[in-house]
Amino acid sequence: MKTFKLTNDNIRPVGRTYYYEDSLWSAFSGTGAEFDFEGSTLYVTLLADASADEEEKKNVARYAVEVNGERVCEGTLCERVTKLTVIDSNVPAKARVQIIKLSECAMSTMGIASLETDDNATVTPAPARERRIEFIGDSITCGYGVDDEDPLHPFKTSTEDCTAAYAYKTARALDADYSLVSISGYGIISGYTATAEAKVTEQLVPPYYKSLGFSYKKFADKLAPEDISWDFEQFVPQAIVINLGTNDDSYCLDHEDRQRDYADNYKKFLKTVREINPDAYIFCGVGIMGTRIYKALETAVNEYKAETGDERVLSHCFKEHDAQKDGLVADYHPIRKSHDNACAEIVPVIKEKMGW
After folding, report:
1. Predicted local distance difference test score (pLDDT) of residue 320
2. Residue 321, phi then psi, degrees to nearest 5
C-alpha cells in the first residue's frame, strides 16, 4: 500500500482550506479536496477537532465523499480519527473523487490526513473548471437543517448539508468551481435576534471575509480559522453572490433607522468585496426567507453604484419560499425543494450577466 499526504501536487483544494501538520484543514461549508484517482483501492483518513470529545456530539463536523459525482461515504466525525473505505475493487478504475465538509465552520473543523492506495495507484489534482464563483451568506448558503423535516427541531450539524443548498447547486448548474463563505445566524450589522432589542454584533460576516472563517474549535486544536488570513490569489472568482440580510431583518424589522444602518454597512462591505475582487461581477440578493429587507439592500446597491460608478453590481430579490405549500425543515428553514427553486431562479440571471 502507498500513503499520500495531501499536497497541491496530488489534490486540488476546494474552497478556503489550510495545510497544517501534514493535513488539509477545512472550516467553511463545502471545503475539502478534489482529485483524480486511478487504481483499485482507496482509503481516506479524516481528523476531527475537540468537538469529537463532547459527550452529545451535536457539533461534530459532517462530511461526504463523492466518486464520479455519486456519494459513497457520509457521516459525522464522532471520533478523533476516521478511516473511510472509498474504493475497494479487484479491477482498477478511474475516478474523480471529492471530499467535502458538509457542515459549517462555527461548530467544528475537519482535517484530511492522508490517502492510502494500492501500490500501483495514481493520485493527481482534478483540473480546475473554467468558471469560478463565490457565495457569501448565512444559514441558507450552509444548507441549515435540510435533512430534518421537522421545523420544531433545533440545529444539529448532522442535519446540515451545503450540497443541498441553492449556492452549491448553482455552482454545479453553472459547471463552476466554488467557494462558500457562510455562517448561520450571521449578518451585515446584526446576527439573528428573537427580541430585536439590540444588535447581535458578535455575529457578523464582514469581519471574517478575509479569513478562513470563524469557529469555536481550532485546526488540530491549535489554530483558530479566524486568525488565519485567506490568500485571495488562491481562488479568484469571476462572479460573487452575496446573500446577507435575513438575520439583519430580525433586528431591523420595519425600523427605518435600522434599515438605513444596514444599507450603509452593506455599502461598506460591497466596497471591501470590490477592492479585493476588482474584476468580479457581484450579485446582491436576499429574500428566500423573507423579502422585507430587500428595499434597504436595493438602496445600498443603487447608492454604491452612484458613488463609485461601478456598474458590475446587481441587486436581486429572490422569491420567498412557500412554507405552506412546500414545508419547512429544522428551525423553520427552507427545504431542498426551496433551494432547488432558488437555484433555478438565480442561474439564468448569472448566465445572462456573465455570458455563461
Report:
1. 96
2. -65, 145
Buried b (16+ CB within 10 A) or exposed e, 129-160: eebbbbbbbbbbbbbbbbbbeeeeeebbbbbb
Please report how the helices 256-276 and 294-308 are oriented relative to each other, as an axis angle in degrees rounded to 10: 50
Q: SS3 for 266?
A: helix
Q: How far is CA 15 from CA 1, 28, 180, 356, in A?
A: 29, 8, 7, 21
pLDDT score, position 300: 98
User: How open is the CA angle 218-329-173, to the nearest 5 degrees?
Assistant: 75
Q: What is the pLDDT of residue 99?
A: 98
- Domains of the chain, CATH where assigned: 2-125 (2.60.120.260), 131-354 (3.40.50.1110)
